[in-house]
Amino acid sequence: MRSDTVTLPTEAMRRAMAEAEVGDDVLDGDPTMRELEERVAGLLGAADALWTPTGSMANLIALMSRLGRGDSFLAPQGAHVLDFELGTAAWLAGGMPRPLPHDAGPGKVTASAVRRAAADDGFYASLRPVLLCLENTHNSAGGTVTAPEEHASVAAAARAARLSVHLDGARLWNAAVALGVPPGALTVGADTVAVCLSKGLGAPVGSVVAGSAEFVEYARRLRKMLG
Ligand SMILES: Cc1ncc(COP(=O)(O)O)c(C=O)c1O
Predict the structure, then answer these.
(1) Distance between CA atoms of 89 and 82, rounded to whole angstroms?
(2) CA max distance for the chain
(3) What is the rounded CA–CA span in Å between residue 102 and residue 125?
(4) Cys-Cys crosslink for 158: which of 132, 168, 173, 190, Cβ 3.0 to 4.6 Å?
């Protein structure tokens, strides 16, 4: 296997694509796209969701919705947003990355490490930590899976420290299958969640970013800004 991104659509998927009801997603909406977004939002336990062409754009939109210049964001070392998105979190979203060591096992960080890193010293010249970006499964750590209770405790620590939480769930489906839990059990405490349709699922392209209705309204504007 070269990569789970190389999977191809099945016959049934090709048929569904060919026969899909099609509208205009830029103007008054595409009913099939809306159905997909609503279905994914439901699976993730989010109010709404927005399709994006790539997982990198889904992450970037979530980060752009929260980060500004002078802000920093935390993420476990080796996270896709840190190492494989060309630094767009910094130069497009404006947040300085702060990698956290895997002190809770491969791909994982402890709640206490998040609490320590989230401490804002209040000094005007210091970066302000505003967001924690988790990744489940954590790709570069070997596809490691974070269980619901581990995720929830780290997310709760971040929220208690006034950080927003974004979950890069490019392969959240795999984590859910490995753990035998619904995907929504792995998103507790996350403000935004990105999932990929193009990894292992056979879709030729596409990701979805989910969150509150207000987030998705803004995310649609951000997606337009990005082209
Ligand atoms: C963990 C993770 N997040 C995000 C992405 C980005 O997805 P895309 O290649 O669709 O931009 C990937 C791609 O491999 C990934 O592994």
Answers:
(1) 8
(2) 59
(3) 28
(4) 132
Q: Which domains does the chain have, with CATH numbers?
A: 14-225 (3.40.640.10)
Q: Residue length, the chain?
A: 227
E-strand ranges in the chain read 48-52, 71-76, 95-100, 128-135, 164-169, 192-196, 207-211
Residue 4, sorted as left (phi over 0), alpha (psi -120 to 50) or beta, turns out to be: alpha
pLDDT digits (tens, 9 = 90+) for 150-204: 999 999 999 999 999 999 999 999 999 999 999 999 999 999 999 999 999 999 8
Q: Which residues pair with 168 in a beta bridge?
A: 135, 194
Which amino acid residue places its CA nearest to atom 8 of ligand 1? 55
User: Can you tell me which atom of ligand 1 is nearest the CA of 57?
Assistant: 11
Contact between residue 66 and residue 43 where contact means Cβ atoms under 8 Å apart: no
pLDDT in tens, 54-106: 999 999 999 999 999 999 999 999 999 999 999 999 999 999 999 999 999 99
- Which tokens in the block code for residue 152? 């929830």
Element (H, E) at 114: helix 111-118
Nearest ligand 1 atom to alpha carbon 54: 10
